[in-house]
Amino acid sequence: MVFKSRAVQSLVELHRQELLHFLSTWERFNASGLALLPASGDPNYQSSRHLYAHVLESARSDLVWVCQLCGIALDAPDPKDPHAILKAYMRHLPELSDEALYVPRNMGEGMNLSLEAILEHAIVHSMRHRHQLERLLEGDES
Ligand code: NI
Fold first, then answer.
1. Which of 10, 19, 77, 136 could form a disulfide with 84 if both were Cys (CB 3.0 to 4.6 A apart)?
2. How far apart are CA 101 and CA 97, in angstroms?
3. Which CATH class is domain 6-137?
4. Ligand 1 center to 55 CA (angstroms)
5. One-letter-per-residue 3-state SS of 37-106
6. What pLDDT was estimated at residue 42?
7. Residue 122 CA to ligand 1 centre (angstroms)
8. Cα separation of 49 and 55, whole Å?
């Protein structure tokens, strides 16, 4: 896949790496039988399945945002299929230019974000949830 922007390509590749890393860590966590953090009231922490769905849905919704903001027609991927979500990033973002990445976009409610910030959020969100699971696997519940 040839991307117009090396910066976009890097963000998409890093997102792929981090989502796959989250998934392999989640598999390990799910197989361990360990519990998630004590009830925080966050519905995404009801079970490891809820957390899995939360991370995939976030990855998908960040892509939906980017496509909406750029007027890219998106075949919205199945929110339960991580590989479909990753393929959709690869399929829909190669035409994005460097310039498009840095323009502030009106997200409503007075918030402006660049596509760069949205794509970085996608990467860091998977990373943070993977890190939480790694800490639980290591027995660190603090
Ligand atoms: Ni989250």
1. 77
2. 7
3. mainly alpha
4. 6
5. CCCCCCHHHCCHHHHHHHHHHHHHHHHHHHHHHHCCCCCCCCCCCHHHHHHHHHHHCCCCCHHHHHCCEE
6. 81
7. 10
8. 10
pLDDT in tens, 106-140: 888 998 999 999 999 999 999 999 999 999 999 97
Which residue ranges make up each domain of the chain?
6-137
Long-range contacts of 34-37 (CB under 8 A, 24+ apart): 34/136, 34/137, 36/136, 37/132, 37/136, 37/141
Predicted TM-score (pTM) of the model is: 0.92
Residue 75 pLDDT more than 90?
Answer: no
- State the residue for tokens 């910030």: 117
Ligand 1 centroid, distance to 97 Cα (angstroms)? 28
Q: Collapsing DSSP states into helix, strand and coil, what is residue 136?
A: helix
